[in-house]
Each structure stands twice: as structure tokens, then as C-alpha cells.
Design brief:
Strand content: 15-25%
CATH topology: Ribosomal Protein S5, domain 2
Number of strands: 4
Number of domains: 1
Strand order of the largest sheet: 1-2-4-3
Number of helices: 3
Distance between the termini: 33 Å
Catalytic activity: Endonucleolytic cleavage of RNA, removing 5'-extranucleotides from tRNA precursor
CATH architecture: 2-Layer Sandwich
CATH class: Alpha Beta
Largest sheet: 4 strands, mixed
GO molecular function, one term: ribonuclease P activity
EC number: 3.1.26.5
Enzyme class: hydrolase
Family: Belongs to the RnpA family.
Structural class: alpha+beta
Length: 125
């Protein structure tokens, strides 16, 4: 589970990230990323609409997305706000696919913006 310091909690925070953040689309999710002060805790938010499926399926998708983001925090990710919106195809996606997609979104952000907020520093070669 993500600690309170690593969660987006207000509607204003969600709105800010979605409207002003960099958008990275995948097969099962659309991620919005916005830089924060260097060293600030990474914060994550999740949007899983009823189009994804029943409450049981939506909660399963949300738990998987949270677990993927928890791994990123454990690896030392800082200085970014991320909102992950699950698309209807996320309902049938397996855990490795969702995890890889969240990681790819963060790495794409790192390449585009040249941020060193993810372990390993700067853009990839």
C-alpha cells in the first residue's frame, strides 16, 4: 500500500496533474506526469471508471496499479506527481502487463524531460 505521503488526495491535485502534466498513452492506461521539486516525495493517483468493469474488477485493477507504483517508490523515485487512468482494456490485462506499462510511462517521461528524479539519473542513451 502507498503511504499517505505518496498519494494524491485532493481533486485540485488530480486536476493539476491531468491538465498540466505530460501525457503518456499505453494499451491499458493513460498516465499523466508532472514534475515536482527535486527530493519531494513521488505522489500517485488512480482513475478507474465504471467502463473498466464491475466493482470487483475495478478494485483489482486499482490494486495492481498501486502495487506497481509502490515498487517505484521503493526503488527511490522522487520529484513527480503521477495520475494513472485505467482504460477498459485494463480489465483483462495481467499484472506484468500493467506493471510494465506504468514503468514505461515513467521512463518515457524521464527520456522526454531529461529528469534525474529516477534512479540512474538523466536520459537514457
Amino acid at each position: 500500500m502507498l503511504a499517505k505521503a505518496n498519494r494524491l488526495t485532493s481533486a485540485d491535485d488530480y486536476r493539476s496533474v491531468v491538465r498540466r502534466g505530460a501525457k503518456v498513452a499505453g494499451a491499458h492506461t493513460v498516465s499523466y506526469l508532472r514534475s515536482r521539486d527535486a527530493g519531494a516525495d513521488a505522489r500517485f493517483g488512480f482513475i478507474v471508471s465504471k467502463k473498466v468493469g464491475t466493482a470487483v474488477r475495478r478494485n483489482l485493477v486499482r490494486r495492481r496499479l498501486k502495487a506497481a507504483c509502490h515498487e517505484l517508490v521503493a526503488e527511490g523515485m522522487t520529484g513527480v506527481d503521477v495520475v494513472v487512468r485505467a482504460l477498459p482494456t485494463a480489465a483483462v490485462a495481467d499484472w506484468p502487463a500493467l506493471r510494465a506499462e506504468v514503468r514505461r510511462a515513467v521512463n518515457d517521461r524521464r527520456v522526454v524531460h531529461g529528469s534525474s528524479s529516477y534512479p540512474g539519473g538523466g536520459p537514457r542513451a
